[in-house]
DNA sequence: TTTACGGTCTACACCAACGGGAGAGTCAAC
DNA sequence: GTTGACTCTCCCGTTGGTGTAGACCGTAAA
């Protein structure tokens, strides 16, 4: 006969846990001293304790263990419990996988944005941009409706996405209404052969551009455009058909309402 | 201003949850009627509620959310929280993966054993056995010491294991002590090229045998051997150097103490 | 015999994130 | 005024234990 402390050391279960299992009628002491209330465990309880810890390590609930131990004595008899439990754990793992995906997405998004910021700074730069495969949806109307376009694009080609969302602006001057633009995502090669309704997949040509990183809400973008346009005029550059806006950091997954930290790269291509 | 019920429908959070978040100072109503105690939420609380649900979906704790919302307003600021949380979830997933592995192992073991039992029945059979790649450790001593051998074998070649554990018995008669046997595992081809100290990897030749399924504890195996030996003598068969015991079902991972359900196949090879 | 010290006892509170239900009060429409 | 839907507070239950307080027990040294 072992005292509860000795039995605890033998089985690896804490004294508290042993008392709890006693209360739950899961692992009864062999004898309880009537006067002192001390619990005493005989050797044959060790095997039961081992079974219980094994089942707990497999994350069975106490009530499952209760049923299993009181009704069966062979693994073949509890296959339905095991299968059910396997389903349960698999379910949880699936959920965790999704959670991890989302968390990774947040991390990657922010880390990329930080890298971009450090690399670029907030000065105007002249850049040589390589050609870029994109999928886009042409839009007409207000700029602020672009969200719908991005949502649709996300549904249709989200899985091929390979870079930050962009906008191609076909207007030569700012328009409140009836603007002419295209929302698009850089996509990977798998998307090239796809023919998706309403979506244009094509390669944007390489070229030279003036680039400026804009920090702040979208309705202040005009100021950055003005800065760039002054330079264009000074240098007498001839602009290409459309400019690009690259949304390096927009509304986050968690925090959406702080446009002060939005980060947008404007690229004005010239010939 | 929305009543708690309306706000609940808008946000997808239950009324109970909203009251709980109020109690936790996480999502305060915009106004609480002094007399009736009714909670009223203004529109700007919707965004906060969305953030909270998003964070809860990502399985952040209430206290994490509290810190996050009260101190920060941009995803870049909470990267350390996200990373830490990612670690935590990954850890849990890793644990779950192990649990699932163990549960699958139990299922597979039992299902294989059941298949074998149904296929074989408990009659003596004549079988043609194909050649079999095994890894084995030669033992001398008592049969009941074979557990140590299997443990060592499991450590050294467990990852190549490809079938039920077996024993090769080199004795022509039963010996209590000083028995001469070899514990072994069938292994896959990856093991063939390995040179592992103390372990012999080789191909057991194909051949004909008398096979009998024995159900019950190992110390009753002799009875089944006797049954087989009578037939050997009747037919005047000449036996090969060693017989095989295949442990189709032995002590389980959970239940170990019911040898009545153990299942062992005895194979006596003859020329 | 007393005292010290460690082991053990019961009983209660606590964790996380709510859900259920009782009993009472409130709001808005008819 | 009444009805029915809504809301309030308060308390309990969940899961698998852990932490703590205050009392009791057992054994050995002084």
Structural notes for this entry:
2 copies of one chain form a homodimer. Chain A is built from 7 helices and 11 strands. In chain A, the strands form 2 sheets. Chain A has an 8-stranded antiparallel β-sheet with strand order 4-9-11-10-6-7-5-8. In chain A, a hairpin with a 6-residue loop joins strand 2 (31-32) and strand 3 (39-41). The radius of gyration of chain A is 32 Å and the shape is elongated. With 271 residues, chain A is of the alpha+beta class. In chain A, 27% of the residues are buried. At the A-B interface, helix 3 and helix 5 of A face helix 3 and helix 5 of B. Chain B binds a DNA duplex (30 and 30 nucleotides) through helix 2.
Descriptors:
DNA-binding, 271 residues, three-stranded antiparallel sheet, Multidrug-efflux Transporter Regulator, Chain: A, Domain 2, homodimer, Multidrug-efflux Transporter 1 Regulator Bmrr, Chain A, 3 domains, eight-stranded antiparallel sheet, alpha+beta, 23% strand, elongated, 41% helix
